[in-house]
Amino acid sequence: MTSMTAARSTSPADHPRIGLRERKKIKTREAIRSATYELIREQGYDATTIDQIAERAEVSPSTVFRYFPTKEDIVLTDEYDPLVLADLRARTADEPWPQAIRHVLREAVRTGVEEDAEIARLRTHLMVQVPAVRSRMMESMSVTGRMLCQAIAERTGRDPGDLEVRVFAMSLIGGLMEASLYWAENGHRDDFATLVDRALDVLEHGLPQRKP
Asked: pTM for the whole thing?
C-alpha cells in the first residue's frame, strides 16, 4: 500500500489468472524497476538517468515514460495496492474493522519485507534521503487514499466521500508513511511490522500518555 512496503499479502495463485497482455506489461514494469534499483545501487539516485534505465532494461526511454511518468514513480509504484484492498474486502463481514485492517496490513508488510528486504530498505532510504521521492510520495497518497476510502465505505456502510471516511483513510496512509520514514531514519533496526502495529495502535486508541 502507497508503495511503502512493496508488499503483497497473498500469492498470485490466490487471484484470478491475468491475460497475456497484462503479464507482458507487468514484466516490462518489473524490468524497468530492476534496472533502476541496480543503477541506484551502483551510482546513486541523482546520477541515474532515464536513458540509462531504458538501456539497462532494454526498452526505449519513451516506454519508460509510458509506464512511469517520473523517475520517482519507478521507485514508489508497485502492483500491490489493488491486492491489499482486495484482501481487505475479502475479510468476513462480522470481523471488527480495526482488526481487519490490522491483519491485512501486518500480513502485507511482513510478506513484502520478507520477499525482498533489500529493496524495501532501499525504497524507504530514498524516501528519507531524496526530497523529490518524498514529495512524489506525498502526491501519490491521495490516489491510494481514494482507493482506501472506497474499501472503508464498503466495509462500514458509509459513503466514500464522508469526511470521517476520508480523514480515517488519510490518517491511516499518513501513519504508514511515518512508520516507513521512522524505520529508515533509524537504520532499519526495528522490525517493520512492529512499527506498523504501533502506528495502528495510535490510530485506534489515540496517543498514549508519556511514560513517567
From this structure: 0.81
